[in-house]
Amino acid sequence: MQTTLTSLCGDYRSLSIIGMCKNAGKTTALNRMIGEYDRRGVVLGLTSIGRDGESRDVVTSTHKPRIYIRCGTLFATAAGLLPLCDMTREVLKTTGIATPLGEVVLFRALSDGYVQLAGPSMNRQLMEVRGLFEDYGAEKIIIDGAISRRSLCSRAVTEATVLCTGASCHKDLDTVVAMTKHICEILCLPELEDRALAELLEQSGDKLRFFTEARESVLQSAEDVDESVLLKRRADIRYLAVSGAVTDAVISPLILSGVPLEGLTLVAEDASKVLVSEDWLARFLRRGGVFAVRDAVSLRAVTVNPVSVYGYRFD
């Protein structure tokens, strides 16, 4: 049996498509998924956090594939793009969500045709639209992402994700492979096994929290000028939980301090919050540190576009 992109996506109801760079092939991947689901008779709900479906990129002026949908497909797009959608459609719901291109409106296609998508940009708005799709009978929901918007792959927004990479990311193949490998490693970070601790972390609004193996919260004292001093003073600390973005600025002081990191697990909210560079992540792991996330992301597939809009291609 031939493996298809949608078969790799499994039974997840909501999916996101995220790109490593512009022209990484997100729209091509979306069209492939639309076609595969259509052939199976699956009712789709489609939206985008950027603008997608135009025949020419408004930034680079390069050709782009259009988005063709079948009768019965649900889609959420900005009202200002309706003149560019050539199918007959039924208004299902006005959302009250404003965008630069107008209010986001939920439609059902009453005929086949081309569509341009421009939906909400905020996660809570995307969750609202996803809920509306579910209410109106969508069996699969696909949210097309924008460049560098990894927050879309958060499990709070979609259950699974597809990553798109390709030659437009960099002219050197080895560099593209390394960049893609790094993002895949982040997206595949393991979920924290101690679910009781995970629940404690969800209730906290503090930027940094420290815990022992017994889930005892350890507070910094006046003498602890930074996290490394606390880790030296309390050798029983096993978890460093970070609320919000985990960046080089968060982990580099720990690494440079020389404090032992063996047995220490740094816990992020989810992979979309891990913005650590390849170099600092490797250094943290070499020192014995472990990365985990409170809520894991399910990366289902990686697509590759070997052709760059800048005039070269990978063989």
The CATH topology of the largest domain is given as Rossmann fold
Which outline best applies?
globular
CATH domain class of the largest domain? Alpha Beta
How far apart the termini lie comes to 27 Å
Element order, helices and strands?
HEHEEEEEEEEHEEHHEEHEHEHEE
| Proportion of strand residues | 25-35%
The main pleated sheet reads as: 8 strands, mixed
By helix and strand content, what is the structural category? Answer: alpha/beta
List the helices and strands and how they pair.
Blueprint: H1 5-8, E1 14-19, H2 26-39, E2 44-48, E3 51-52, E4 67-69, E5 74-78, E6 89-99, E7 102-109, E8 113-115, E9 117-118, H3 123-135, E10 140-144, E11 160-166, H4 173-187, H5 195-202, E12 208-212, E13 217-218, H6 227-233, E14 237-242, H7 248-257, E15 265-270, H8 278-286, E16 290-295, E17 299-305
Parallel strand pairs: 1-10, 1-11, 2-5, 2-10, 11-17, 14-15, 15-16
Antiparallel strand pairs: 3-9, 4-8, 5-7, 6-7, 12-13, 12-14
Structure description:
The protein is an alpha/beta fold. The protein folds into two domains: 5-169, Rossmann fold, CATH 3.40.50; 195-295, no CATH class. The chain is 25% helix and 28% strand. The protein has eight helices and 17 strands. The chain has an eight-stranded mixed beta sheet, with helices on both faces. It starts with a helix and ends in a 10-residue tail after the last strand. The model has no long low-confidence stretch (mean pLDDT 90).
